[in-house]
C-alpha cells in the first residue's frame, strides 16, 4: 500500500528519515533547510525519538555523533554557513567511523550569499571539506520523491559503510512541493554489531568494522586521534596512520559500484549531458522536447564516490555537457575520467538552467 | 497539457497558501501532477509575494514557471512586478478592490477583498474567494477537488466560512463575466 | 570495587607529567563513580582535547574522546539518545571555557543530566603552556610573555549564571572534599559542574616561580578560601584578596533538567 501526498521537498526528507528509523535529530535553524528541523520537531517526540535544537552547527554535528554511538540513527540538516561550521566534526565522524546523515539544502555562497536561492556550490566541500584524507558518500535528489527515497537510503549506507552520508539537495528541490507516492514501509538494513572477541576497529573483509554500541559492554574507546584496531591512540606510528587512512578511503572507493545509483539514457548518443540535483529536471525537459534519441544523459543520484565507470557506458560520446549550479565542480571531476571534451555549463545566481539555455549549448557544440 | 499559474499579492494575503491549495487539489483529488514553487524574500509581511503552480496530466520535468497562462493577482505591486508582462493569450483573475491597473489579456475583475470583508465578514478569506473565481474562470482543477483541498488546509472551525468564500468566488465570475482586452 | 577497577590497565602508564594534578582528580572522580555503584556497561566518559581530556582513554568503560571544545555537545547527544547511560565529562579550562565556551553555557542552560569535571590548571598544558581564559592576571605563559593582561573567567560563576543545578570548586589538594563533591554531582539530576584547581608544574609552575611541585600545591592550598569564610569576610567588610579563590559547594538547586533517566 502506498499513499499520495503533495509535499515540500524538505518535508519529504524528514519523512524519509523517520521511515528509515531516524530517531535523533540535532540541528540549528538555517534557511533553506529549516523545514526539515521543524518537521522533525513535530514528529520525533511522538515517535519516541529526540529532537534537540543545538546552540550552533558545530554542536549539532557533535550531538548526532554522540547519539549515533548509542545505536540511534541520527541526522542533522543545514545549509552553506552551517555546513562550513560542521566540517571539523564531519572529519571526526569519518575518522571514528560514525554512521550519520547530514542533509545540506544548498544555497548560494560564499558566505551568507543567497539564503533563499538554489546552488550546488558545496559539492567539493562535502567531499573534501574537513582536513586530511577520507572518503564519504553523497546523494543528490532531483525531486520531492527522491528527497524521501534518498534520505531513507542515506541511513542504510551510513550504517553499512560506517561513514557520514550527505544528502546534497538544493533550495529548489528542498522548497518545491510536488506529487509524491509514499510507501507504507521503507526497508532497513540495520547496523552490523561488533562480534564479541573482535577488536572494535578491526575491519572485516569489506574493510568495515562491526559497531560497538555504547552501553552494550564493549568498553570501546573512541578517539579522533590516529588509533589502532583496539581504538587506542597511536598518533606517532607512521604505519598505523597510513593503514588507517587508506582503509577509511578504500572502504568507500572500493564499494563504488555497489554505492553507485544512476540512470543511463540514450547510451549511443554523441552529445551527453551529465547532471545531478535540480539541473536534472532541465535536462529531462530537453530530452522530452527532443525525443530523437540523439542526446545522451547520465543522471546521477550518487555523486560521491564518483561513479566514474558510468561515463564509460557512452561509447560514442564526443562531448559531455555538465550543467551545474556552481562554477564546474563536478565537471572538473568528470574531466579526470574521459578523453573527450567536457563542457561545463555553470549557472550562478540562484535560478535553474532553462531548457533553451541547454539547447543553445548543444547547438554551439554540434 | 502543461498549465502554468502565477499568484501574486502582498505578504500576509495567503498567496503561498493559495498556490499550495491549488497544487494539492490537482494532485490529491484530480489525480494530476503539480509543482508549487515560490519566491522567498526576507519579509514575512508586506512586499510583493509570488508563488507559482504547474499542473499537468504527465509528470512535470522542468519545475519552474516560464510563461504563465494564468495569473491570480491580488495587489497593485504584485501586478506591476509579476502580472504586467502577461501575454495576450493569458487569463488573469485580479482583485479589483485592490488592483487599479488592467492587463492586455482576458481579465476577470473580482472584488475579492471587498466581498470577503463586507459579505463574508472576514477579509482573511479573500484568497479563497480568488481561488473559487480562478476555478470558475479556467476550470484548471475541478470544483470538488478545490473544495476538498481548501478544507484540508484551513484552520479547524473555519471550514464553513472558507467553503462559502470559494462559492462566492464562483458566483462573482458568473456575475462579472470576462473583460476582453 | 575500588577506583582502580575502572582503569584500562593495558593503556597505562599515562602521559601525565610527574607532579601533575590530573591523576589525583581522575582518582577522585572514579572513586565517586565507584561509590555510586554504577555498572561499567552503563557508564560513559566523554572528553574534548587537552591533557584533561586524555582521561577517558585510561578508563575501561565506553568512552568518547572528541574534538577540541565540543565534549559537552557530543555528551548531549549520547545522554539524550540514551538517558539510561551515566555520562561523565572530563574537560580543562581551555577546552571548556575558550573554544567550548558556548557549549558550556548552553549545556548549563539546558541543565542536561551530565557531571562535568573541569581540571583547571590555568594553562594550555598539552601544547606547551599558552595562556587560557583562566590564566590569572599578570601570570606568564608562552603567549603572555609580559604577563597576562586579560581578566580571567570564574568558571563556577559562569555555570551558576547559566543555570547548572550543582556547582562546586575544590583543588587537587582537597582530595576528600573533591571526591565528595563529584559524588554529589553524580547524584544530582541535571547539570553538575565540579571545578578542580590543579597544578601544572611543567607549563605553569615552571614559568611562574613555583620551583617545586609542592610550591604550587601549597599556593593553591593557601589561596583557596572556603565559601563560609569568604561570606564571613564580606559580611565583616573585609576585602577578599584578588588572588584568592572560593572553594566549596557553590550551588545546589532543582531547575528543570533534560535527559534525566526515568
Task: Describe this entry's structure for a reader.
- The complex is a heterotrimer of chains A (366), B (181) and C (262).
- With 366 residues, chain A is of the alpha/beta class.
- In chain A, 35% of the residues lie in helices and 24% in strands.
- Chain A has two domains: 182 residues, Rossmann fold (3-Layer(aba) Sandwich), CATH 3.40.50; 102 residues, 3-Layer(aba) Sandwich (Rossmann fold), CATH 3.40.50.
- In chain A, strands 2, 3, 4, 5, 6, 7, 8 and 14 form an eight-stranded mixed β-sheet that branches. A five-stranded mixed β-sheet of chain A has the order 11-13-12-15-16, with helices on both faces. In chain A, strands 1-9 form a two-stranded antiparallel sheet.
- In chain A, strand 4, helix 4 and strand 5 form a beta-alpha-beta unit.
- By secondary structure, chain B is an alpha/beta fold.
- Chain B has a single domain, classed as Pyruvate-ferredoxin oxidoreductase, PFOR, domain III (Pyruvate-ferredoxin Oxidoreductase, domain 3), CATH 3.40.920.10.
- Chain B has six helices and six strands, in the order E-H-E-E-E-H-E-E-H-H-H-H.
- Chain C has a single domain, classed as Rossmann fold (3-Layer(aba) Sandwich), CATH 3.40.50.970.
- In chain C, strands 2-1-3-4-6-5-8-7 form an eight-stranded mixed β-sheet, sandwiched between helices.
- In chain C, helix 1 crosses helix 6, helix 3 packs across helix 4 and helix 4 crosses helix 5.
- The mean pLDDT of chain C is 97.
- Classes of the chains: A alpha/beta (366), B alpha/beta (181), C alpha/beta (262).
- At the A-B interface, strand 1, strand 9 and helix 10 of A face helix 1 and strand 2 of B.
SSE topology:
The complex is a heterotrimer of chains A (366), B (181) and C (262).
Chain A: E1 2-8, H1 9-19, E2 22-27, H2 34-43, E3 50-53, H3 57-69, E4 73-78, H4 80-96, E5 100-108, E6 114-118, H5 123-128, E7 137-139, H6 144-161, E8 164-170, H7 171-175, E9 177-183, E10 221-223, H8 238-253, H9 256-259, E11 262-265, E12 271-276, H10 279-289, E13 295-300, E14 302-304, E15 319-324, H11 329-335, E16 342-346, H12 355-364
Chain B: E1 3-11, H1 15-29, E2 33-38, E3 46-56, E4 70-73, H2 76-83, E5 91-95, E6 106-110, H3 112-118, H4 126-138, H5 143-153, H6 159-176
Parallel strand pairs in B: 1-4, 4-5, 5-6
Antiparallel strand pairs in B: 1-3, 2-3
Chain C: H1 22-35, E1 43-47, E2 62-65, H2 71-81, E3 86-92, H3 93-99, H4 101-110, E4 115-120, H5 155-162, E5 166-171, H6 175-187, E6 192-197, H7 213-223, E7 224-226, H8 227-235, E8 245-252
Parallel strand pairs in C: 1-2, 1-3, 3-4, 4-6, 5-6, 7-8
Antiparallel strand pairs in C: 5-8
Helix pairs in contact in C: 1-6, 3-4, 4-5
Amino acid at each position: 500500500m502506498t499513499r499520495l501526498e503533495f509535499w515540500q521537498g524538505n518535508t519529504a526528507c524528514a519523512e524519509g528519515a523517520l521511515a528509515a528509523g531516524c530517531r535523533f535529530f540535532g540541528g540549528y535553524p538555517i534557511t533553506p533547510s529549516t523545514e526539515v528541523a521543524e518537521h522533525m520537531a513535530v514528529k520525533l517526540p511522538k515517535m519516541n525519538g529526540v529532537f534537540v535544537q543545538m546552540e550552533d552547527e558545530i554542536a549539532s554535528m557533535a550531538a548526532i555523533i554522540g547519539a549515533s554511538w548509542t545505536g540511534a540513527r541520527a541526522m542533522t540538516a543545514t545549509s552553506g554557513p552551517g555546513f562550513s561550521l560542521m566540517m571539523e566534526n564531519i572529519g571526526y565522524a569519518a575518522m571514528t567511523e560514525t554512521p550519520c546523515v547530514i542533509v545540506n539544502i544548498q544555497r548560494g555562497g560564499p558566505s551568507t550569499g543567497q539564503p533563499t536561492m538554489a546552488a550546488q556550490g558545496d559539492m567539493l566541500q562535502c567531499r573534501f571539506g574537513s582536513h586530511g584524507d577520507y572518503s564519504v558518500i553523497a546523494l543528490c535528489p532531483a525531486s520531492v520523491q527522491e528527497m524521501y527515497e534518498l534520505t531513507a537510503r542515506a541511513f542504510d549506507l551510513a550504517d553499512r559503510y560506517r561513514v557520514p552520508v550527505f544528502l546534497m539537495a538544493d533550495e529548489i528541490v528542498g522548497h518545491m512541493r510536488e506529487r509524491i507516492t509514499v510507501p507504507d514501509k521503507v526497508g532497513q538494513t540495520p547496523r552490523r554489531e561488533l562480534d564479541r572477541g573482535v577488536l572494535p576497529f578491526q575491519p572485516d573483509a569489506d574493510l568495515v568494522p562491526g559497531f560497538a554500541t555504547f552501553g552494550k559492554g564493549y568498553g570501546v574507546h573512541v578517539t579522533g586521534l590516529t588509533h589502532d584496531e583496539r581504538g587506542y591512540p597511536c598518533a606517532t606510528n607512521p604505519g598505523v596512520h597510513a593503514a588507517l587512512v587508506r582503509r577509511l578511503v578504500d572502504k568507500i572507493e572500493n564499494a563504488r559500484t555497489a554505492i553507485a545509483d544512476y540512470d543511463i539514457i540514450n547510451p549511443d548518443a554523441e552529445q551527453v549531458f551529465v547532471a545531478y540535483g535540480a539541473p536534472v529536471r532541465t535536462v529531462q525537459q530537453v530530452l522530452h522536447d527532443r525525443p530523437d534519441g540523439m542526446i545522451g544523459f547520465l543522471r546521477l543520484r550518487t555523486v560521491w564516490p564518483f561513479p566514474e565507470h558510468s561515463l564509460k557506458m557512452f561509447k560514442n560520446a564526443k562531448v559531455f555537457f555538465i550543467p551545474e549550479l556552481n562554477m564546474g565542480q563536478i565537471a572538473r571531476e568528470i574531466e579526470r575520467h574521459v578523453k573527450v571534451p567536457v563542457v561545463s555549463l555553470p549557472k550562478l545566481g540562484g535560478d535553474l538552467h532553462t531548457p533553451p539555455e541547454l539547447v543553445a549549448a548543444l547547438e554551439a557544440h554540434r | 497539457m502543461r498549465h502554468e499559474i502565477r499568484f501574486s499579492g502582498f505578504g500576509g494575503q495567503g498567496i503561498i497558501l493559495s498556490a499550495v491549495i491549488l497544487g494539492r487539489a490537482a494532485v490529491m483529488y484530480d489525480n494530476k501532477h503539480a509543482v508549487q514553487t515560490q519566491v522567498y524574500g526576507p519579509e514575512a509581511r508586506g512586499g510583493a509575494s509570488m508563488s507559482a503552480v504547474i499542473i499537468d496530466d504527465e509528470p512535470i520535468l522542468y519545475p519552474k514557471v516560464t510563461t504563465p497562462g494564468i495569473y491570480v493577482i491580488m495587489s497593485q505591486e504584485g501586478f506591476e512586478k509579476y502580472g504586467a508582462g502577461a501575454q495576450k493569450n493569458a487569463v488573469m483573475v485580479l482583485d479589483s478592490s485592490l488592483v487599479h491597473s488592467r492587463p492586455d489579456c482576458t481579465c476577470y475583475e473580482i472584488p475579492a477583498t471587498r466581498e470577503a470583508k463586507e459579505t463574508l465578514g472576514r477579509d482573511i478569506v479573500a484568497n479563497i474567494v480568488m481561488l473559487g473565481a480562478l476555478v470558475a474562470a479556467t476550470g484548471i482543477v475541478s470544483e470538488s477537488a478545490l473544495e476538498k483541498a481548501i478544507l484540508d488546509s484551513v484552520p479547524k472551525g473555519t471550514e464553513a466560512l472558507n467553503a462559502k468564500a470559494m462559492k462566492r468566488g464562483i458566483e462573482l465570475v458568473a456575475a462579472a463575466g470576462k473583460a476582453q482586452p | 570495587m575500588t577506583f582502580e577497577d575502572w582503569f584500562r590497565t593495558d593503556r597505562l602508564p599515562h602521559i601525565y607529567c610527574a607532579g601533575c594534578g590530573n591523576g589525583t582528580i581522575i582518582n577522585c572522580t572514579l572513586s565517586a563513580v565507584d561509590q555510586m555503584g554504577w555498572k561499567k556497561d552503563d557508564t560513559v566518559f566523554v572528553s574534548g582535547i587537552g591533557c584533561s581530556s586524555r582521561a577517558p582513554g585510561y578508563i575501561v568503560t565506553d568512552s568518547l574522546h572528541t574534538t577540541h571544545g565540543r565534549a559537552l555537545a557530543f555528551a548531549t547527544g549520547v545522554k539524550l539518545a540514551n538517558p539510561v547511560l551515566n555520562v561523565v565529562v572530563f574537560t580543562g579550562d581551555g577546552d571548556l571555557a575558550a573554544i567550548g565556551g558556548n557549549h558550556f553555557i548552553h549545556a548549563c542552560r539546558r541543565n542536561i543530566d551530565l557531571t562535568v569535571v573541569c581540571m583547571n590548571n590555568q594553562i594550555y598544558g598539552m601544547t606547551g603552556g599558552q595562556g587560557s581564559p583562566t590564566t590569572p592576571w599578570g601570570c606568564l605563559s608562552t603567549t603572555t610573555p609580559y604577563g597576562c593582561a586579560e581578566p580571567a573567567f570564574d568558571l563556577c560563576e559562569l555555570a551558576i549564571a547559566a543555570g547548572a543545578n550543582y556547582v562546586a570548586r575544590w583543588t587537587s589538594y582537597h582530595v576528600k572534599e573533591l571526591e565528595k563533591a563529584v559524588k554529589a554531582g553524580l547524584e544530582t539530576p541535571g547539570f553538575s559542574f565540579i571545578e578542580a584547581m590543579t597544578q601544572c608544574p611543567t607549563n605553569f609552575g615552571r614559568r611562574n616561580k613555583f620551583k617545586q611541585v609542592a610550591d604550587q600545591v601549597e599556593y593553591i592550598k593557601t589561596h583557596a578560601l572556603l565559601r563560609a569564610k569568604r561570606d564571613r569576610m564580606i559580611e565583616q567588610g573585609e576585602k577578599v584578596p584578588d588572588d584568592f579563590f572560593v572553594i566549596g559547594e557553590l550551588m545546589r538547586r532543582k531547575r528543570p533538567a533534560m535527559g534525566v533517566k526515568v
